[in-house]
Design brief:
Layout (H helix, E strand, L loop, with lengths): L4 E9 L4 E8 L8 E3 L17 E8 L2 E3 L1 E3 L4 E4 L8 E8 L8 E3 L3 E4 L1 H4 L2 E2 L7 E5 L11 E3 L18 E5 L2 H4 L4 E4 L2 E7 L2 E8 L6 H19 L8 E8 L3 E5 L3 E7 L13 H15 L26 H18 L5 H16 L9 H6 L12 H4 L5 H17 L6 H12 L11 H9 L4 H7 L8 H6 L3 E7 L8 E6 L2 E7 L4 H5 L6 E5 L2 E2 L5 H5 L7 E8 L2 E8 L5 E8 L5 H11 L2
Parallel strand pairs: 1-12, 17-18, 18-20
Antiparallel strand pairs: 1-2, 2-8, 3-7, 3-11, 4-5, 4-8, 6-7, 9-10, 10-15, 12-14, 13-15, 16-17, 19-20, 21-28, 22-23, 23-24, 24-25, 24-26, 26-27
Helix pairs in contact: 3-4, 3-5, 4-5, 5-9, 6-9, 10-11
């Protein structure tokens, strides 16, 4: 067995947002060791340069300093070493990023991902890695606990105290960095799904219905497990949630997920109905939980061995994020947490969100997957005109494929069969999903040839013909006009009482007249524009009216003449058809589990 690499994590100075992490290499190489931090975190496809948060770094042997040369932005190398003495590399890490991707520390709590904290030792990544989390001293931290899905270094939790502080063991570096850690005085909700313990810990000032949250999560998790197998591929699962005034996001891990939400997203005590905020939060939980299979274990071949110091490219994120986005809300209705009309409303919102952006006609979801590093995660004012979301359109591709398979097999096969096939043949321990393999996989799982559909919808830029596909299931898709501002081809954002153009859309009258993203709207036809009155101002004018528009561009006042067109078709609605064949009803009920 390889020698264990040890890490010691101290909450060094919470007031200054500083962790201190000590790496111990028991028998270093005489010629020296190279250590480095990742530059990105799996699941978030953007170079983030975690090493920028290292405030101090020192190496020593037996208390004697060792020279440490910086090789590049994320790696260091020691000089020659005494192999009979352990090597210690100590870093002080600044942690003030309140997100699911990095680390955060103050006097209220601590949170970290291993990608920001743990130096990798070159050539020793497959060795066991042990981490000890030290309980901070002082009355302020007396009630603090540790929550992480990384298991104890000793059987029966002997290495961990009642609060969760102590030593935990990972089989290799990849596992070490795939178990984020929450530290603090958090709330906890526990339940079982398929006989496996699950827990959600919630940090922040919250008051919510714990019983309802546990019941809803249990039903959703049970439904997701049933798609793949009878038992999940982990012995425990942890949802780590930071509840703040305004926030939303999640990042998947092999036996846990890190979430951020608004405290108003949690179920209120005494509330009888599920509001939109809570429904959205459950969808987020469902999405990240589904990822425990689809992306954490069923992976693109490019992700089987992560290269953490450079971009890892794949054209398949539409499968891994898009399919997951399809199943996240589907699990809610199948688990009977929402009604059929609510689910169709969520689908309609996704369809409208995709169709209102012209970028979908220029970039395929396969190209969007490959370009995630440079385009999707680095969006700007022109993004609606240039890119498509592999999450949103990927979910519509999944929907289109599911409806196609169900219709062609009379409901005997579905996308569920595809997911089970992926799990059985491309799950943990496999060489990963090859690029371009989805048509053959779907045919093997269902007997249905979807090469043309994937070529058009995923590799090409055609819209998924959802109106036609949904009709077979007794559902009518109706499209509707959007806001008055859509008649100008603009989107806006409020800045206090002022209104600024966030996007100017291709082909719109605003673009043709010369308006640009970033312009501050001042007046229309001599009347002041505010953050609250744009729609009412535009409502006073008929389509094809010429508007006299004043804007500030930087500090320059500019005047434009802009034709007002009829509102663009930007919304849609899904309705159960008043008259439908019995076969359509049967297919729809099987699809939605109702």
């Amino acid at each position: 067995m390889s020698q264990i690499l040890d890490y010691r994590v101290e909450l060094f100075n919470p007031q200054a947002h500083l962790f201190r992490v000590t790496l111990h290499v028991p028998t270093p190489a005489a010629e020296g060791e190279t250590v480095s931090l990742p530059v990105w975190i799996p699941g978030s496809y953007m170079i983030r340069e975690f090493a920028k948060n290292i405030v101090e770094i020192h190496a020593s042997q037996g208390g004697t300093p060792v020279a440490l040369d910086k090789l590049n932005k994320h790696a260091w190398r020691t000089g020659r070493l005494d192999p009979k003495q352990g090597l210690d590399v100590q870093t002080v890490v600044y942690a003030w990023d309140l997100s699911v991707r990095c680390a955060h520390l103050d006097i209220t709590h601590g949170f970290f991902n291993g990608t920001q904290m743990f130096l990798a030792v070159a050539g020793r990544e497959e060795a066991p890695h042990r981490v000890e989390i030290i309980h901070p001293e002082g009355e302020t931290y007396a009630k603090w606990k540790v929550a992480t899905s990384l298991l104890s270094a000793d059987a029966g939790r002997k290495g961990i105290d009642k609060a969760g502080f102590g030593k935990r063991l990972a089989s290799n570096y990849d596992e070490l960095i795939d178990h984020p850690v929450e530290i603090g005085d958090f709330a906890s909700v526990k339940f079982e799904a398929a006989g496996v313990p699950h827990e959600m810990v919630i940090t922040g000032r919250v008051c919510f219905d714990t019983k309802r949250l546990a019941e809803d999560l249990q039903k959703i998790c049970q439904n997701v497990i049933g798609i793949f197998d009878k038992k999940p591929p982990f012995s425990n699962y942890l949802f780590m949630t930071m509840a703040v005034g305004d926030g939303y996001g999640g990042l998947e891990h092999r036996a846990s997920t890190a979430l951020i939400c608004s405290r108003n997203d949690l179920p209120a005590l005494g509330a009888e109905k599920m509001d939109e905020a809570y429904r959205t939060f459950l969808g987020l939980c469902s999405h990240e939980y589904f990822h425990a299979w689809n992306v954490k274990r069923i992976k693109p071949a490019a992700f089987v061995s992560y290269r953490l110091h450079e971009e890892n490219y794949t054209r398949l994120l539409w499968v891994f994020e898009g399919f997951t986005s399809y199943y996240d809300d589907l699990a809610l209705i199948r688990a009977k947490r929402i009604a059929e009309t609510e689910y169709l409303g969520l689908l309609a919102k996704t369809i409208a969100a995709v169709e209102r952006n012209a970028g979908r006609l220029k970039q395929s979801v396969a190209e969007s997957s490959f370009d995630a590093w440079t385009k999707y995660y680095r969006q700007d004012e022109n993004s609606p005109n240039a890119i498509v979301s592999y999450y949103q359109k990927g979910s519509l591709v999944a929907l289109g494929l599911d409806l196609t398979i169900r219709a062609k097999t009379g409901g005997k096969r579905s996308l569920d069969d595809v997911m089970r096939h992926l799990w059985q043949h491309y799950g943990e321990g496999s060489a990963g999903l090859p690029e371009g393999a989805m048509p053959e996989i779907i045919k093997a799982a269902t007997g249905v040839d979807v090469r043309k559909e994937i070529a058009r919808w995923a590799e090409g830029t055609e819209d998924v013909p959802l109106a036609r596909l949904l009709k077979t299931f007794g559902i009518h898709l109706a499209r509707k006009a959007g806001t008055r501002a859509s008649g100008l081809g603009i989107r806006t954002r409020a800045e206090g009482a002022n209104l600024r153009l966030s996007h100017v859309l291709d082909g719109g009258s605003a673009q043709q007249a010369g308006l640009s993203a970033g312009d501050e709207l001042i007046a229309i036809n001599g009347l002041r524009v505010t953050a609250s009155n744009l729609e009412s101002l535009l409502a006073r004018h008929l389509p094809e009216s010429l508007l006299d528009v004043l804007v500030f561009r930087r500090d320059e006042l500019l005047r434009f003449t802009v034709p007002l067109r009829a509102p663009a078709i930007e919304e849609c609605e899904l309705q159960i058809a008043a008259v439908q064949p019995l076969e359509g009803l049967r297919l729809r009920q099987a699809w939605l589990g109702i």
